[in-house]
Amino acid sequence: MTSYRDLLREKQAKNWIKAALALNITKEGLHEFVEDVLTCVHHDIYNTIRTSKSLQSGAICLHCFTENVLQCPTRGICTSPKNCRFHKAANQMYVPCPNGICGGVRNEIIQHHRFTGPSWMNTNADKWCTSPWEIGKCFLPPDGYKTVSSVKDSDFNSVISVMMNCKDFEKKLSFNIGAKTNLLSEVRGFGRIVRHSHDQKIEDKPLANIFFKLRSLLEDQTDLANRPEAQHAVEQLNQLQSDELNINAQNELEMLKEGLRLRLNDHYQTTLDNMPISPILAEKDAKLSSCYVAPTIIEKNHKKIGRVGQSGGREVATFSDMFCHEGHFLRNVILVGEPGRGKTTFSAMCALEWTHQYSQAGEKIERKERFGDSDFFLESLHFCSMLHYEIQVRNAI
């Protein structure tokens, strides 16, 4: 079997690593720029609300959650007040802000969004007053970023998405962000090329274009050209392209792990997205994400099964309940049930949930309400490797 280290000896594979590192370098060069613009957006929104409502200069609200701020229905969130999966509890219903602030902030975020469609699933409204980034998350792809706590913790795609979707960046860049094709849309496309390369290889000419466009963005004359962190990133890009930048073992390891993540993502979406609708109709497939119903799972102590008075157990309500104990991954989880009760399908859906974080906005799998912690699988590479093993064992029997 060809190892990853053998693959790295190929020129095109080295080019892919260079491209991936170039995206990371560019993202780091844009951090402070994005943070500064979002801080200004935050100030503008709250100054507008306080002025329009004659509130004190320091008036804030820390009590409204995202569910409380959005009416039902809200486009892209919920469609029916009768069976809403977003406003699903008494304390998660829409209510006017008691301080008269959060509803106005919501409306201002919509006005600042280029397409008037903020990503409400990403944000925590109770943190809007204190965190510019929490408002910035409304300009990210539809969901998958709720637990991302800062610009630095986000990925390249999210940083570029904020710049494209927030209208306040228009005055900070020299080109027309609203044009169908512009420099931001081009570099975002490079991110997709790198992340969705089926073999993690890039030819010399496309790589040269990636470096040229990334430098062009970082050297934009309106603002970025005057920022030291952006120009430091330009220097690093030049060194990387000319093989003068030292790629240490840690960098190489991170790229290897990223390559494995991408291969697992493609494998799961190719092999698991469609499953037989019944064990007795193995030739009839259906899209798993559209018809999946989570099984009822009861946690039991295997040492006490069969004892008198031990027939019951605790129902599993979250993925954490299933796979963790006191904050740590369990080494072994045994899922027991009669044939056809959904053990293999449950494992497959867990793998698809994990791939959700690596899919682009237009490629997200359809997700229905299953467990309360859908972000559980973020960055759980080792866990999904284990799932792959279990699914393969089941199929081999």
Sheet having the most strands: 2 strands, antiparallel
Please tell me what the overall shape is: flat
Into how many domains do the coordinates divide?
Answer: 2
Counting DSSP E segments of at least 2 residues, the number of strands comes to 6
Number of helices: 14
The parts where pLDDT drops under 50 for at least 5 residues are: 360-367
**End-to-end C-alpha gap:** 24 Å
Describe this structure as you would to a colleague.
The chain is 45% helix and 4% strand. It has 14 helices and 6 strands. Helix 2 (11-52) runs antiparallel to helix 9 (228-241) and helix 10 packs across helix 13 (343-355).
Which helices and strands occur, and which strands form pairs?
Layout: H1 4-7, H2 11-52, H3 66-69, H4 102-112, H5 132-136, H6 156-165, H7 183-195, H8 204-218, H9 228-241, H10 249-271, E1 274-276, E2 285-287, H11 288-291, E3 298-299, E4 314-315, H12 319-323, E5 324-325, E6 328-329, H13 343-355, H14 381-396
Helix pairs in contact: 2-4, 2-6, 2-7, 2-8, 2-9, 6-7, 7-8, 8-9, 10-13, 13-14
